[in-house]
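Regression check, NAP case 310:
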Amino acid sequence: MADSKNRFDLVIIGGGPAGLTAGLYAARARLQCVLLEKMIMGGQIATTDIVDNYPGFPEGVNGAQIGTLFEAQAKRFGLEVRQFQEGLKVERREDGFLVSCANRDELFCKSLIVATGSGWTPLGIPGEDSLKGAGVSYCATCDGAFFRDQEIAVIGGGNSAIEEAIFLTKFARKVYVIHRRDQLRAEKVVQEKAFANPKIEFLWSHIPLAIVGEKEVSGVQVKDLKTDQERLLAVSGVFIYVGMKAESDIVKELVKVDAQGYIEAGEDTATSCPGIFAAGDVRQKPLRQVATAIADGATAAIMAEKYIEG
Ligand code: NAP
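Current build output:
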């Protein structure tokens, strides 16, 4: 049974914009609350160079910086944060939930906010796994500088792929964008920026078949879907941005999730399990942005407060 320092009204899992906003509201409501994060604070935006569409920053804002600002604001009101909490398990108890941590801490809470976000979807082609960290990357901010003056490829046509391709031109001599259709999915304003960048070359209607290389990436085998022709594109790095998957495993036995693993919860963030609320990218929703994540975080905290008060 959890000792008194590990008994809380509310446990928030995830330290991205949704979790930190929930923490800010919960701390201001004077709930006994702790936020658990498995890695660095800030979530997915912490690995984004510039966030251009979060209101209040007319020149855009660095992703890691915005995460730090969210954290500082929540801590100012007394939010307790515990980082590097991997391998969490959640069990339902008669009067709440037991959260077991890998370090053997056991936390008991009356209510739980799941703000675990989403992770990158792998492509699932040969060479992707074996060359991960040796030229295959899912994080331009982390790895871009390794490719100074080199030729690299970005796979995908959404906001992530195109924004990161633009960012990578700061380092690389040339960035190929390999996209399976002849139209991008990214926002128009992002597309315009990419089309105006002389270092970016688009391979339209192409798919990657395999990433090749002995110890490091030396190329990517691509296929032109219009001609069926295959060729080897010589690149030393491959950045993969083909969508996101929900990080809901931690509660998927307790709450309803959809076919993609996103937690089913409405605008009130209430899940199918009373006392568990889902906020941010992990929730089934039409738009995944910082702006929508923070709205969820605020709602989830207030709903959790009402739930705790009965
Ligand atoms: P996304 O919007 O789902 O785009 C994924 C891209 O990968 C699509 O272009 C898709 O092609 C392509 N793709 C998927 N599976 C593929 C496969 N097996 N082989 C080749 N290509 C494949 O994912 P995202 O760009 O990571 O964005 C995820 C969410 O975060 C979105 O809601 C996005 O708006 C949001 N986001 C927003 C911002 C921003 O607002 N600044 C920045 C980043 C992300 P098709 O187009 O043909 O389907």
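Comparison notes: The pocket of NAP is lined by residues 53, 123, 155-161, 163, 180-181, 185, 207, 241-244, 288-289 (CB under 6 Å). The helical segments are 17-28, 63-76, 140-143, 159-168, 188-195, 290-308. No diff flagged against the previous build.
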